[in-house]
Amino acid sequence: MEPNRIKQNLYDEFDANCYKVFGVSGTRVHEVLSERGDDLYEVFEQAFDHGGAAFMRLRMLMSIAQLETVYYETKIGRELSQEEMDERFEGLDIGLNADTIAEYAKWYSSQPDDAEHQEEEVS
Description:
Helix content: over 70%
Number of helices: 6
Number of domains: 1
Number of strands: 0
């Protein structure tokens, strides 16, 4: 399958997962974050360049999980422990589990450093 089709499939999956978790499209999530100066699509493209489709998919999944965690922590008024966060990530039922989270952390830590990468925290 050609890279553009692979990427389109991943963006379609991102869109479906955003609907599942947030009740809005992936495009809307991107728009909201863009208004704050964060370009998710650029981050996803960098992930593809660094680790191919597998890393791009994990980056998309983790972006959804991390964003949902921010909303949830704001709602409950406290930060989640790592154990609570891992349970929450798995409970989203979008394909994250202990193995995929560990795989993401490994890939993420091997990504070239840039200002955006250094500011983010890996769960």
